[in-house]
Design a protein that fits this description.
This protein has 13 helices and 15 strands. The chain has helices spanning 35-46, 58-78, 92-107, 126-135, 152-158, 181-190, 210-213, 238-243, 278-294, 296-315, 341-350, 363-369, 385-401, and strands spanning 23-24, 86-89, 113-117, 138-142, 163-169, 194-198, 217-221, 232-236, 254-256, 263-264, 320-323, 331-336, 353-354, 356-358, 374-378. It is globular. The protein starts with 22 loop residues before the first strand and ends with a helix. The structure holds 4'-deoxy-4'-aminopyridoxal-5'-phosphate. 4'-deoxy-4'-aminopyridoxal-5'-phosphate is lined by residues 91-93, 121, 123-124, 169, 173, 198, 200-201, 221, 361.
């Protein structure tokens, strides 16, 4: 391998669920959890547990402080102007659905258009289809460049004043291609459209600053950022959130309730009906501290070196077709000629290499690539050269087995 990991991260010991000799290459699906996150969750339930926002006793007041500290931590992590712009949701899927319901409810009308891209995850397609169907809006699909990036020249040519919203992945969960968010924002805003960025795969591997990016909404899931499942984030510009109606009614989202008339709380509470995932927020706080202590620029450099090594080694195997650009962020999709990706995944599993095989919740992208499914190796902070070697040895074994 010619690309050297110059300053390899050596943090696998922080991850108790990764046994020696197991190459976990499915971080794009969900990341393993470091000890500080597991400890924060254990402490949250085992030592400091109580509800938030309601209790008059000290334990509940302390938990409320911790829960709101997590919100401020997320705001700082994303470069948000205020913690009030951070809505806790279950994950990216819920964040996109929230915008597709609440923003679209007042801002989208018949004849309006939404621009998505060919590589979007189903979570960034289906909610918009549902929103568009409700009001009679239409969806346009931006094509990809030959190497699997969202073609922003094409997007620019497609956008018209009828477009009210653009929604794009910051990093593709299949190809790892990185969006030029600055340019995407610029061309969306030029026609007066708002832009949502699906940051699910970006936040664990690139520094993100929503103020510098100048986008309108940004979503991500905690579990892909080494945090717990069941907690994620919607960031929205304060003036947009302020104008959005709530989507779920219940406790915590109200100002005053009577049978005659109910008024709503200001954001973010307006969008957080019910008892929230309290300990999830504490776990997410610990995950952000963990990732920040390593440094996202270092994580990105580490994963870029792993990607370069993996692509170079896989390219050396005749029957392997690599998908996506060479500078993909932490994710390498590939096909082995004549072998179904599920068979690739099964044989790799026998060699203790865990990859994902399937359509990756991106069936329109599979159609554009002309495949039913791909094999996907995705990296995290805990991976090292030994994992690439195990992957490549395993793929060689696949080619031997299938002749
Ligand atoms: N968008 C992208 C790009 C993703 O990779 C994923 C998860 N695979 C999602 C959205 C949905 O995330 P979740 O299932 O955590 O809501």
């Amino acid at each position: 391998m010619s690309t050297v990991l110059e300053r390899p991260l050596d943090v696998v010991a922080d991850f108790p669920a990764i046994p020696a000799g197991w190459a976990y290459l499915d971080t794009a699906a969900t990341a393993q959890k470091p000890k500080p996150v597991i400890d924060a969750i254990a402490r949250g339930y085992g030592e400091t547990y109580a509800t938030v926002h309601r209790g008059v006793y000290a334990r509940s007041a302390d938990m409320t402080i911790a829960y709101e500290a997590a919100r401020r931590r997320v705001a700082a992590f994303l470069g948000a102007a205020s913690a009030d712009e951070i809505v806790f949701v279950r994950g990216a899927t819920e964040g996109i659905n929230l915008v597709a319901q609440c923003w679209a409810a007042t801002q989208l009308k018949a004849g309006d258009r939404i621009l998505l891209s060919q590589l979007e995850h189903h979570a960034n397609i289906v909610p918009w289809q549902m929103a568009a169907q409700r009001v009679g809006a239409a969806i346009d699909v931006c094509p990809l460049t030959a190497d699997g990036r969202i073609d922003l020249d094409a997007a620019e040519a497609m956008l018209t004043p009828a477009h009210k919203l653009v929604s794009l992945a910051h990093v593709s969960n299949v190809l790892g291609s990185i969006l030029d968010v600055h340019r995407a924002v610029e061309i969306a805003h030029r026609v007066g459209a708002k832009i949502l960025i699906d940051g699910c795969q970006a936040v664990p591997r690139l520094p993100v600053d929503v103020t510098a990016l100048n986008c309108d909404f940004y979503v991500f899931s905690g579990h892909k950022l080494y945090g717990p499942t069941g907690i994620g984030v919607l960031w929205g510009r304060a003036e947009l959130l302020d104008r959005m109606p709530p989507w779920q009614g219940g406790g915590a989202m109200i100002d005053r309730v009577s049978f005659e008339r109910t008024t709503y709380a200001a954001p973010p509470a307006r969008f957080e009906a019910g008892t929230p995932h309290i300990v999830g927020a504490l776990g997410l706080h610990a995950a952000i501290d963990y990732v920040d202590a390593i440094g996202l620029s270092r994580i990105h450099a580490h994963e870029a070196a792993l990607v370069a090594n993996a692509r170079e080694a896989l390219r050396g195997i005749n029957s392997v077709r690599l998908l996506g650009p060479d500078d993909s962020a932490g994710i390498v999709s590939f096909a082995v000629g004549g072998v179904h990706p599920h068979d690739v995944g099964t044989i790799l599993d026998e060699a203790h290499v865990a990859i994902r095989a399937g359509h990756h919740c991106a069936q329109p992208l599979m159609a554009a690539l002309g495949v039913e499914a791909t094999a996907r190796a995705s990296f995290g902070v805990y991976n090292g050269p030994q994992d690439i070697e195990a992957l490549v040895d395993g793929v060689r074994r696949v080619t031997r087995i299938f002749g």
